[in-house]
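Bug #77: duplicate submission created two jobs. Keeping one. Sequence:
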Amino acid sequence: MDMTVLKKKRISFIGAGALGGAVAQGLVRGGCKVLAADPYAEKLTHLRTEGVNLTTDNIKAAEEAEIVIFALKPHLTLGVVRDLASLLNGKLCASLAAAVPLQMLVEAAPGARWARAMSNICAATNSAFTGITPHPSASEEDRADLKALFSLVGEAEFAVEKDLDLLTALTGAGPAFFLSMLEAAAKGAIHAGLPKELAYRGAACTLLGAARLALESGRHPAALCDDVCTPGGMTIEGVYELERSAARGAMMKAVLLAAEKGRGLTEKVVSSLKQ
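Kept job's structure:
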């Protein structure tokens, strides 16, 4: 994929909340020109500062775009897609909404070329993980464009739709889980006497470094953890407490419950939209 060509394409967002705004910001940082439509555009000064063009007009955003990304709440998505359907004909469109099946998007705007994607707020710093599910009718060019587009905001992989719903629990909600653990680690150090600024920065850099080590080494996290655990040392003492307090089990359950909640939301959204 010629990234120069992709970056010249006109990209619009319908919705610029936490997730949509983060992806829009990441794309601008990646060299794209982005227009985002949001009813509260005047309040999104942080996006304007980053170079995202803003409007309150969904029609303007859809008309001007070659690629349209919908970043709306699940219960709002199909209504807005239907309202804009005539402006989406022939355009590559992606929805970031959880719980709205691909087939419903196609039915709402059959003239568009559809995909679903699940990214996360880390897109703002070009460090997200995005799962992408193109419609089966997507061309190879569309698939290449989608992969290249979301690769600008971090890592991107294709996934079947049922896995995309599960990824929502892991990578969509995941930043909140890991940030909670980061905060807890920093507060432990603060309780031990470390200055706050140093504790939070140290915790964040350590989490980032551990994630990078896991990705780049290709080794299992348990093996990497074992490397640090000197017999009778500080690290194994801390790991012992994590095991004793079932910290890993709590994280596993958090992802599992988020996934179960997602399934319920999907069923609820689908049921309500069919009525």
